[in-house]
């Protein structure tokens, strides 16, 4: 059974959000914003762009990268999120713009909440960097073992 809540780009996001937590590319603005912008662009190109996969796929990825750079939300797996909207299964394509809400936004929020907990359990890890959320976790003593 195929799970519609899991998309391939979340694998790469997970590696970054749990393994490279100091990177600016995985801070909440980049992680969530980059994924959402890319999903919007991917769906829009699928619906209104060229109906030739060899044109639509690279157009979705390139446009999402440009949009993420302009909005300062660059998150590399976002390019894959845009690509999945164009070349994904029928279950993904039939979602249309709902793809942005579920699985993308829902999945990002789940990953983000888990990352907040996991990355702030010890005093040696801090995610997101320089954030009030991190200070709340640290002040509650959640970093003590």
Characterization of this structure:
By secondary structure, the protein is mainly α. It has helices at residues 9-19, 28-48, 53-70, 77-87, 90-93, 98-119, 132-139. It is elongated and about 55 Å long. The longest helix has 22 residues, at 98-119. It has seven helices and no strands. Helix 2 packs antiparallel against helix 6 (98-119) and helix 3 (53-70) packs antiparallel against helix 4 (77-87). It starts with 8 loop residues before the first helix and ends in a 6-residue tail after the last helix.
Reported for the largest beta sheet, the result is: none
Elements, N to C (H/E): HHHHHHH
Distance between the termini: 39 Å
Record field, number of beta strands: 0
Backbone shape:
elongated
Helical content stands at 55-70%
Radius of gyration: 16 Å
Average residue-wise pLDDT: 91
**Low-pLDDT segments, ≥5 res:** none
Strand content: under 5%
Structural class: mainly alpha
Count helical runs: 7
What is this structure, in a nutshell?
The protein has 145 residues and is mainly alpha-helical.
Which helices and strands appear, and what pairs or packs with what?
Elements: H1 9-19, H2 28-48, H3 53-70, H4 77-87, H5 90-93, H6 98-119, H7 132-139
């Amino acid at each position: 059974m195929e799970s519609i809540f899991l998309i391939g780009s979340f694998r790469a996001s997970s590696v970054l959000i749990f393994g490279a937590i100091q990177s600016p590319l995985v801070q909440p603005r980049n992680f969530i914003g980059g994924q959402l912008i890319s999903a919007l662009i991917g769906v829009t190109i699928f619906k209104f762009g060229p109906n030739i996969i060899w044109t639509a796929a690279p157009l979705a990825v390139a446009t999402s990268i440009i949009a993420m750079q302009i909005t300062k939300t660059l998150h590399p797996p976002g390019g894959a999120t845009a690509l999945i909207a164009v070349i994904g299964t029928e279950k993904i394509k039939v979602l249309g713009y709902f793809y942005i809400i579920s699985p993308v936004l829902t999945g990002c929020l789940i990953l983000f909440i888990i990352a907040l907990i996991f990355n702030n359990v010890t005093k040696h890890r801090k995610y997101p960097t320089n954030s009030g959320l991190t200070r709340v976790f640290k002040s509650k003593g959640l970093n003590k073992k």
